[in-house]
Structure formats: C-alpha cells, structure tokens
C-alpha cells in the first residue's frame, strides 16, 4: 500500500509539472497580492513618515537633525529582529500545519502590530509595535513565496513570483506617497506636494498615526480574502493527503485544458518524500544533514545578508539619509516617492523576462543600476530632475534582484522543508538590514559635522551599494542553477 501511495503521489506531482500555465484562478494571485501589498506598505510607510514621528512623538527639534537617522536605526533593527523571529519560528510551522493556515495567522499578527503602532505613545511602545509587525511580515513573506513556488508552472516560477511582487510595489508606493501626503508640510511641486496635509492641524501631529491605522485596515482585508485560498497540493502530497491534493490538481488540469485544449505528456515520475508526521526538527535535519542543502543555505543566507544591508538602508531610510545630506524634508520625501516608479518597473521586467536568465544573473544587472542611481542623486545638487531620475534608477536597482531571488530561494529546498529553508535564508539574511542602516546612520552622523559636500554624498551612496556588490559576487561566484527545472529535480 505504501508503494502504491508513493506511485500515486509521484503521478500527482508529474501531472502538476506538465501544466505549462498558471493552473489556479488568477483571483488567488490577487488574494496573495493584497497580502503582499500590506506587508510592503508596512515596510515602506516609515520611510517618509518617520520624520514627523520623530518631531511629534520623540521631540526631536529639527527635521534635518542627524538624531533622526540615529533613532530610526534601532527601530529598523528591532523590526528586522521581529522579522527574523517570524521567519525562523512561525514560517517553518507551515511545513507542519500547512501554508494556508499560517498565511492567515501571519496576517493577524501583522495587522495587530500596525494597530499598536498607531496607538504608540512613546519610543519604547513604538519599538515594540514595529517588532510585532516584523514578526508577521517575516513569516508572511516566506510562506507566500513558498506557496507561489509550489503551485506555479516550471517555466514560470519567477514570472508568478514577480506578479505577486507587483502588489508589493503598489504597497510601497502607497506607503511612501501617503507619508508624503499625510506627514509633510505642503510645498511647491516638485519640492513637495502643494496639497500635503502634514503642516498644520490634526495631520501635523497625527498624520503618521493615520498611516499605521490604514495599515491595520489593509491587514483585515487581506485576512478575510485568504480564507478562500486552496492548500498547496505539493504540501498535501508531502503529508500523504493524496485525495485532497488530487482534487486540487484536477481543478488545475481542467482550467489549463480549457485554455490550451491538450496538455503535454506526463514527465518522468519522481516519487516524492512523504511523511505524515514531520516536525520542525525534522525539517532542520533535512537541511543541515545534507551537504547539498548546507551549501545552498550558506550561499543564499550570505547573499541575502549583504543584499539586505543595501535594501533596508534605502527602503526604510532613504528620506532620512537625504535629509541628513541637506535636502529639505518635503524634497527628500518627494525624491523617495518618485523613486517608487523604479520599484514598480521591477516586477514588470521580471514578469516578462525573469525566467529567461538564471536567478543569479539578475544580481549583477541589479547592482549596476543601484550604483548608477545613487551616484546621480549624489551629484545632482539643486537639479531636482536629475535627483528624480537617480531615485527611479536607484529603486529599480536595489529591488531588481529580489523577486527572482525569492523564487531561487524557494526552489533550493525540498517541499518537506521548503518554508523552513526559505525562512532560514531570508530571516537570518535580514540581520543585514538592521546592521546596514545602523552602520550608515553612524557613518553619516560622524561626517555631517564637517559639512555636506558632493564628495560626502558620493561616499555615502557608494558605501550603501558596496553591500549589494558583495552580495552579487557571492551569488555569481558560487550560486547554483535552478531556472526552468522541475522542483523535485532541483531539490529532491
């Protein structure tokens, strides 16, 4: 009976692998995307709004004070500590109880953290709230990317990861532009928004609170939508729940046949690993008792560690960095807000061509744009158009490698430990985000007394990009190939 079940499980996997298009309803991509929209809204909502938070809640006297990046550093660090806790402790639970259940739990945690942020009355509570939110975000990102990797077609894992990632860019856009609208004083365009509300009245003190309240509402919407998600068939198969898995596979086949007419022949049957009882400890043993997976873990965690130093310094702190370099806060916020255009271009690019190149190749293309964008901002001076162009290129660059690397990380571990493996790499890697922003804040604070110059600005942006350069070298030099291969061949 066990042998017969293993054959049936292998057949179900092969039936999934022969489907060359997205086999589920596109509504489910939208449902996952709404959740991603919120999580990235929460990552980016602090970028512009934190200056007002520092002035009104932490009583910083000057919006260009280097004290603001110094206050921001521990907040980002603890948010990332929460992210790591969520990734390492909560995400692996989805390998035990399922992707769908954990996706609902993580959205609840994230929403509660955002609500707590809206009600924070001092620095300590603000820190705690960002930590709780980070716990939910860290777990959610790992599980969403695991889910997409398990249900997407062989030749479209980067494509559909990118499609969901498109929603994250919309969340980042919403977070930054709402921050500009609700928390900065009005200023003539392009130095700010003429209709911004943050200069007087209720929003001059509470605009940032409204931002986090909106985040809590978005989380509630995301939670309600996720109740209709089906479970990952690959996870069901790994747990021996073949009847449930086959039911979902049949739906996928029917949908694909309706669009294509006929499906390709079945590929070779690979019998999957089945373990009805499989704990977090078992998942860790799967990864760390195998030389293959230990090597992959080392490569990927190092890539994420250094890459996130650049990503989080810019994603959470660009407005504060620019303000410390002499840009007026509304202007700094506007430069960051315009830069989000580049972020939106990322999933559009990788949706169409992400699967045509190996995952690690994208890290090289990405870092080149990061360096160019940072240098353009540094040399722009009073040329606001050049600052805008530089910001667009910068956002494009430091985000371009992310969706394909999400796909790469999920592909690199077996189904029975995929969420655990992703969480370990992405979670530990996020330590780099906290280290990066604190290092840059300290660097700026130590140099700002000598006066802001173009040379200083160039030095700052090159240092920020240096972390991503190291990440790229690691990926290119020793990274493995996984594009357009069956999951059970890449990670048996």
UniProtKB/TrEMBL annotation:
The protein in question is named Sugar transport related protein
Report the InterPro entries cross-referenced here. Answer: MFS_dom, MFS_sugar_transport-like, MFS_trans_sf, Sugar_transporter_CS
Name the PANTHER family for this protein: SYNAPTIC VESICLE GLYCOPROTEIN 2
The cellular component terms of Gene Ontology attached to this UniProt record, alphabetical and capped at eight, are: membrane
What transmembrane ranges does the database entry give? 21-41, 68-90, 102-120, 126-148, 160-182, 210-229, 305-328, 334-354, 361-380, 386-408, 428-449, 455-478
Stretches assigned to the Major facilitator superfamily (MFS) profile domain? 28-483
| GO MF terms, alphabetically ordered | transmembrane transporter activity
Q: What SUPFAM superfamilies does the record tag this protein with?
A: MFS general substrate transporter (SSF103473)
Topological relation to the membrane, as annotated = Multi-pass membrane protein
List the keywords (alphabetical).
Membrane, Sugar transport, Transmembrane, Transmembrane helix, Transport
User: Where is the protein situated, by its record's location annotation?
Assistant: Membrane
């Amino acid at each position: 009976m066990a042998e017969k079940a293993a054959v049936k499980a292998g057949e179900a996997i092969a039936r999934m692998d022969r489907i060359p298009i997205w086999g589920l309803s596109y509504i489910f991509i939208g449902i996952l995307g709404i959740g991603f929209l919120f999580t990235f809204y929460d990552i980016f909502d602090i970028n512009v709004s934190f200056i007002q938070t520092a002035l009104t809640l932490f009583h910083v006297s000057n919006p260009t004070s280097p004290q603001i990046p110094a206050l921001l550093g521990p907040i980002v660090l603890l948010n990332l500590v929460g992210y790591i806790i969520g990734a390492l402790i909560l995400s692996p639970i989805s390998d035990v109880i399922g992707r769908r259940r954990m996706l609902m739990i993580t959205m609840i945690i994230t929403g509660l953290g955002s609500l707590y942020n809206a009600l924070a009355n001092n620095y300590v509570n603000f820190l705690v709230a960002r930590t709780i939110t980070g716990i939910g975000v860290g777990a959610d990102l790992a599980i969403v990317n695991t889910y997409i990797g398990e249900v997407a077609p062989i030749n479209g894992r980067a494509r559909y990861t990118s499609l969901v990632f498109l929603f994250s860019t919309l969340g980042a856009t919403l977070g930054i532009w709402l921050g500009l609208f609700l928390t900065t004083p009005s200023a003539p365009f392009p130095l700010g928004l003429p209709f911004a509300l943050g200069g007087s009245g209720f929003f001059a003190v509470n605009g940032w609170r409204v931002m986090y309240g909106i985040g809590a509402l978005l989380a509630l919407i995301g939670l309600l939508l996720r109740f209709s998600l089906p479970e990952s068939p690959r996870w069901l198969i790994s747990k021996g729940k073949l009847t449930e898995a086959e039911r979902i596979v049949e739906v996928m086949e029917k949908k694909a046949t309706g669009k294509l007419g006929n499906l390709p022949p079945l590929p070779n049957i690979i019998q999957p690993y089945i373990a009805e009882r499989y704990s977090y400890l078992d998942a860790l043993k799967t990864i760390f008792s195998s030389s293959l997976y230990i090597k992959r873990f080392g490569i990927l965690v190092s890539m994420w560690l250094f890459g996130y130093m650049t990503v989080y310094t810019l994603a959470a702190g660009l407005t504060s960095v620019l303000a410390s370099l002499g840009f007026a806060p509304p202007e700094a916020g506007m430069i960051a807000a315009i830069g989000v255009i580049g972020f939106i271009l990322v999933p559009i690019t990788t949706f169409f061509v992400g699967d045509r190149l190996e995952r690690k190749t994208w890290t090289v293309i990405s870092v080149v744009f990061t360096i160019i964008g940072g240098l353009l901002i540094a040399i722009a001076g009073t040329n606001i158009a050049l600052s805008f162009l530089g910001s667009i290129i910068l956002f494009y660059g430091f985000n371009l490698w992310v969706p394909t690397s999400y796909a790469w990380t999920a592909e690199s571990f077996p189904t029975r430990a995929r969420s655990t493996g992703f969480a370990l790499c992405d979670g530990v890697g996020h330590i780099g985000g906290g280290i990066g922003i604190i290092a840059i804040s300290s660097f700026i604070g130590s140099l700002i007394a000598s006066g802001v110059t173009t040379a200083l600005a160039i030095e700052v942006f090159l240092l920020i990009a240096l972390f991503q350069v190291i990440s790229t070298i690691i990926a290119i030099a020793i990274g493995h190939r996984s594009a357009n291969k069956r999951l059970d061949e890449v990670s048996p």
